[in-house]
Design goal:
Strand order of the largest sheet: 1-2-3-4
Number of helices: 16
Radius of gyration: 28 Å
Helix content: 55-70%
Largest sheet: 4 strands, antiparallel
Number of strands: 4
Shape: elongated
Structural class: alpha+beta
Length: 394
């Protein structure tokens, strides 16, 4: 007799072995294991790491410095990177045309004038991280190959035009938009990190005290939090940013904006911490520590808070996008960071004129960086929340 296909059932011994192995893992190991199964969150983590790596070493990854300009190529459109065996990696040179009536600038590609590119190309000298002198850029114009090509053209009696490389286009001053977006990433992304540090200090301290003391102190703190939450955030941000002195240095303005953003975002974390402390302060290990004479500060910060650290991390992760969007909104409206500081919100100030956006839509490209960062943080927060939840089915 022919038997049907055999079905291999999991052995009870194998399931018991897996349970023992999982039981031997720590809380953080279990969270990391569950997080690795969340594909979208894991990909978002790698994307954010790449963005922050680019922001830290922005001088190397940017083809030019943030204030470099080429007034002969104002509003130059993005150039497409091409490759062939004769010219290698290159972009086509751009020829500018000016309308004699409207004075509008248009550009056409010149297929006979390729501009060679190379990785780790020599370019403008800079100081990496402010103290390491370098002149190599991740991607840029290969000036040696271009000089050799123009020497051949000069021998034939042709003038050698200046090489141009605007991967994402140029602004009204002929500044490379890609370079300024990379430099702006350092400011916009660091605002979120510094902001969550302030949020962590305010939220954990005030929320922990509220939940641990209870009674009148808890009531007063919760009423204060409700008052803070009742203010509309954007108008209040505008009012606080308008109070900042106009003669402050860019560094002072940067830290002031960061603190202003964190002053309105700590209440959510404080509510989470307060609720957790209320449920944990009567646990046996907390009562034992109190009976052994431990101080209130030690019980709160040494015994209670570590019990839900993962929830704090999730809450902080989900609050970063709000701070980045807050800085972008204030800078876009001209009440946040101002030039010469470069951030994604400052770059979008050029888009306030709808006519400029109509003719030069590549000036809106910083929005893609903002949307990508916010989405990655949201996906990362969702993944961490699922991984930290002991009842998650993932």
């Amino acid at each position: 007799m022919s038997s049907g296909p055999s079905v291999i059932l999991p052995s009870p011994v194998t399931e018991e072995k897996q349970a023992v192995e999982l039981g031997g893992l720590s809380q953080w190991q279990l969270i990391r294991l569950r997080f690795s199964k969340h594909r979208l969150a894991a990909i978002s983590l790698y994307v954010l790491l790449a963005l922050y790596l680019m922001a830290v070493f922005c001088e190397f990854f940017a083809p030019y410095s943030r204030e470099w300009r080429d007034l002969d190529h104002t509003y130059c459109p993005p150039q497409i990177v091409r490759f062939n065996f004769s010219d290698g990696l290159h972009v086509r040179g751009m020829t500018r045309h000016i309308d004699p009536i409207t004075f509008r600038k248009t550009y056409t590609e010149d297929a006979d004038r390729p501009v060679p590119l190379s990785f780790f190309a020599r370019g403008e000298p800079y100081e990496l991280l402010g103290f390491i002198p370098m002149e190599r850029h991740f991607l840029g114009v290969d000036h040696e190959r271009y000089a050799a090509r123009t020497r051949t053209a000069a021998e034939g009696g042709q003038a050698a035009p200046k090489p141009t490389f605007f991967l994402l286009g140029a602004d009204r001053y002929g500044r490379d938009l890609l370079s300024r977006m990379i430099y702006g990433a350092r400011i916009s992304l660091s605002v979120g990190l510094i902001g969550i540090l302030c949020t962590f200090l305010f939220g954990v301290t005030i929320g922990g005290i509220s939940g641990y003391l209870g009674g009148t102190a808890d009531t007063l703190i919760q009423r204060f939090i409700e008052i803070v939450n009742s203010f509309p955030h954007l108008p209040l941000w505008l009012a606080l940013a308008a109070v900042l002195p106009g003669d402050w240095s860019p560094l002072k303005t940067y830290f002031a904006i960061t603190i202003l953003l964190s002053l309105l975002n700590w209440t959510g974390l404080a509510r989470v911490v307060r609720g957790k402390i209320l449920s944990l302060r009567e646990e046996d290990y907390a009562m034992a520590a109190r009976l052994l004479g431990a101080s209130h500060g030690r019980i709160l910060f040494r015994h209670l808070l570590p019990g839900f650290t993962s929830h704090i991390i999730v809450t902080l992760t989900l609050s970063v996008p709000g701070m980045i969007l807050g800085e972008t909104s204030l800078s876009f409206l001209g009440l946040g960071l101002r030039p010469p500081i470069v951030s994604w919100g400052v770059l979008l100030q050029d888009c306030m004129d709808i006519k400029v956006v109509k003719f030069y839509p590549w000036l809106l490209l910083p929005v893609i960086f903002i949307v990508l960062t916010v989405l990655c943080f949201n996906f990362l927060g969702d993944g961490l929340r699922d991984a930290a939840d002991p009842y998650s089915t993932r």
